[in-house]
Amino acid sequence: MVIWIIGLSGAGKSTIGQALHRHWKSFAANTVLADGDEIRALFRHTDEVAYTVAGRTENSRRIAALCQWLDQEGINVICPVLSIVAQHREQLRRTLSGYFEVFLDCDLENLAARDAKGLYQAAREGRIRNVVGVDIPFPRPENADMVICNNHPFVDAEQTARDILAAAGIHP
Fold this sequence. Notes:
Layout: E1 2-6, H1 13-25, E2 31-33, H2 36-42, H3 53-72, E3 76-81, H4 86-95, E4 99-105, H5 108-114, H6 119-124, E5 146-149, H7 157-167
Parallel strand pairs: 1-3, 1-4, 2-3, 4-5
């Protein structure tokens, strides 16, 4: 089973993914966290080209392939990722033993206010390019199994993790 957590930078994907990993792994040892940022670093896909639409598409293809392989090996995967390629998500939905898509919906105003990585301000000031939601469109997922609004205030990650597991039909 793969739980794919989608949202813009700062929406809370990694935080909720980590909480979900702790909860799920507590009763299913065959569970891994494949965070999009960590996978990008693992493949050393961190140069400027990596953040273009083409680079993001390639990263998405790699992450999807990794999730398919882990799923075939009987490993549960939590994948928090900024996912702009709907075709990759639909392929996963068709080919995995189980796929549950969570969209962390957060408006740009709230994201810019929290902006932990400084991406939105740097993009507005023209210091960086290729920021999804600013100069790269973010196509809202149309087929998410669960949508969570994570504007101000933040949702509680621990409770949200429990809610995701319950909605996905995963129980200890």
